[in-house]
Amino acid sequence: MPVTSTENATGILPDGTVDAVVIGGGAAGLNGALMLARSRRSVVVIDSGTPRNAPAEGVHGLLGLDGIPPGELLARGREEVRRYGGRVVTGEVVATAPASRSPEGDLRFTVTLAGGGSLRTRRVLVATGLRDALPDIPGLARHWGHDVVHCPYCHGWEVRDEPIGVLATGPASVHHALLFRQLTADLVYFSRGGGLDDDTRARFAARDIRVFDTPVAGVESDASGITAVRLSDGRAVPRRVLAVAAGLLARTDGLDGLRLPMEDLPNGMGRCFTSGVAGITDVPGVWVAGNATDLAAQVGASAAAGALAGARMNADLVTADTDAALTAALSDAVQV
Q: What is the pTM of this model?
């Protein structure tokens, strides 16, 4: 069905009701939108323009596109969505209204953007991604995505053989250290005052991982990057790379109205939206894909999840369209 447009503070938004609004313009959101657009659905992607991987130089572990700059990958994705008639609008979602029902009984959501624009939609895909919660250590955050890394599969090859330090953030950091030990022979573990049991210390010793139990006071650097970790007793431990298992928090801004259930990860490592197969949620008409529901998913997995969610959303819309057509046909038959 053709959808007309109006211009407002957020850009060009369609009038009337669209088939789907995708909240989030990363890999999951764009691939979901691509599947919907290729199914001839009217779809609008709301992209805040603040992707989590923006500081990274390249996307890794993505077959056929390994090393592609994140910005280039997303630009290609936006162009592909538009090629099939989808829209991508830059904006921030500030409110989402719970679903109402159309006269035909189908779902209707209202998504409001900063600046006053709003959209009416039959279905919603939440693909907002996540935020990384870094430890509050002076000098750490400004190196995020370069000399401060979180994923051995995303960044490990690029920091191989460097002097790496693992900053403990919780129980998961023990396994984190063993993963990064695969990439360098020079690894130290900063427990930051947290306890390590004897078995863990023995395992670390067997792998030549040195442990510093003294609290960390700050991260030192020069023009070339990180140079050392300063301990609270004044010692400086030379390091070039720091690995941190950051806390992972799904982005929820503006989504309270959808009343989506959430869950906490074990060991306090994060919080995400709860979803089932292909991103389905307990809220009819709403799907979730990517890091908003799978906090550990890399770009490829997030894109695949978006594609699955988009296909399921189209199937749900097909059922609703058929139900409406059948109701109309029966009504016409009765009138005759």
A: 0.89
